[in-house]
């Protein structure tokens, strides 16, 4: 009987521990569901704002409506920024949702102004981000609704 109880205990513990997935724990913390969003901290030496002229090469859409979450665009800079050490910028968008043809944004040239994404940002699309794009440790920037709208209109 004792062996049966021990076996039952370990089996039920194993089943219980499998109910929570890494994705579930990310949901609870407000971090993105798919890939980590890197926030600027107080020690970041990168510029506070970037004037970005580049081409969208990847996109992860957000949601607006009942559920609010930011999306992410990966932009390849056409005009390099002297104070910024990379040719790629990772940007959280405000309410950029998929249209009928989602690929319309890929290859789109954009001219926007982005600012550092920090944990102090309070808008829902900066606190919860649906992201499938890895940045290899590069901190993300963010677009306001006005700057995000420039991309939507241009499409």
Radius of gyration: 20 Å
By DSSP (H or I, 4+ residues per run), the number of helices equals 4
Largest sheet, in brief, is: 5 strands, mixed, barrel
Helix content: 25-40%
Strand order of the largest sheet: 1-2-3-5-4
Fold topology:
Blueprint: H1 2-18, H2 22-29, E1 49-60, E2 71-77, E3 88-93, E4 109-116, H3 124-127, E5 141-142, H4 145-154
Parallel strand pairs: 3-5
Antiparallel strand pairs: 1-2, 1-4, 2-3, 4-5
Descriptive notes:
The chain is α+β, with helices and mostly antiparallel strands and 155 residues long. The chain is 25% helix and 23% strand. It has helices spanning 2-18, 22-29, 124-127, 145-154, and strands at residues 49-60, 71-77, 88-93, 109-116, 141-142. Strands 1-2-3-5-4 form a five-stranded mixed beta barrel. It starts with a helix and ends with a helix. Mean pLDDT is 79; it is low at 4-34.
Question: What labels describe this entry?
Answer:
alpha+beta; single chain; 4 helices; 5-stranded mixed β-barrel; 155 residues
Gist?
It contains 4 helices and 5 strands. The chain has 155 residues and is an alpha+beta fold.
């Amino acid at each position: 009987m004792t062996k049966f109880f021990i076996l039952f205990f370990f089996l039920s513990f194993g089943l219980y521990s499998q109910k929570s997935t890494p994705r579930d724990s990310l949901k609870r913390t407000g971090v993105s569901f798919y890939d980590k969003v890197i926030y600027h901290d107080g020690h970041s030496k990168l510029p506070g704002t970037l004037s970005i002229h580049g081409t969208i090469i990847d996109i992860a859409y957000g949601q607006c409506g009942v559920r609010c979450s930011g999306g992410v665009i990966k932009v390849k800079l056409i005009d390099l920024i002297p104070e910024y050490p990379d040719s790629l910028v990772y940007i959280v968008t405000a309410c950029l949702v998929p249209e009928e043809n989602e690929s319309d944004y890929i290859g789109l040239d954009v001219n926007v102004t982005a600012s550092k994404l920090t944990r102090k940002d309070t808008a829902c699309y900066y606190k919860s981000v649906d992201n499938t794009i890895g940045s290899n440790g590069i901190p993300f920037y963010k677009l306001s609704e006005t700057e995000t709208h420039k991309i939507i209109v241009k499409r």
